[in-house]
Design goal:
Number of strands: 0
CATH class of the largest domain: Mainly Alpha
Mean pLDDT: 83
Largest sheet: none
CATH topology of the largest domain: 434 Repressor (Amino-terminal Domain)
Strand content: under 5%
Helix content: 55-70%
CATH superfamily of the largest domain: lambda repressor-like DNA-binding domains
Length: about 130
């Protein structure tokens, strides 16, 4: 039975989300602290333990529920809603979130990453 006929094949869902986020297996492997072959094995698995699923979800920037509930049909339906407007242009689409909040969120994540990098470098320098 192919993975396309199994709606709950968790590995396939992870693979599709990774592809939609334009992420290579190597990048996901690095985020998980593992090898590309391990990511390939994850994507070929029908099931995944909760801890590993949570780690993958965090690395992909989605929730565990988003992975479990993902379907290609839902994505197609979502993108088809853009064609439902009578004018068929994207100018009438309104964001469901405040873009400035997203910029602040990204800035805070960047700032935290920089703090962690400085701490790591300070520890490394003390060790010499």
């Amino acid at each position: 039975m192919s993975t396309l006929t199994k709606p709950n094949h968790i590995g396939r869902k992870i693979s599709r989300i990774r592809e939609l986020r334009d992420m290579k297996q190597e990048a996901l492997a690095q985020a998980l602290g593992t090898s590309q072959q391990a990511v390939s094995n994850i994507e070929n698995s029908e099931t995944l333990d909760d801890d590993k699923l949570l780690a993958v979800a965090n690395a992909l920037g989605v929730t565990v529920e988003a992975i479990k509930n993902f379907s290609d049909e839902a994505m197609i339906s979502y993108f088809n809603t853009f064609n439902d407007s009578p004018n068929n242009n994207f100018g009438n689409h309104h964001c469901a979130f405040n873009p400035l909040d997203k910029v602040v969120e990204l800035y805070e994540r960047l700032l935290q990453a920089e703090k962690e990098k400085v701490e790591y470098l300070e520890k490394a320098q003390k060790g010499k």
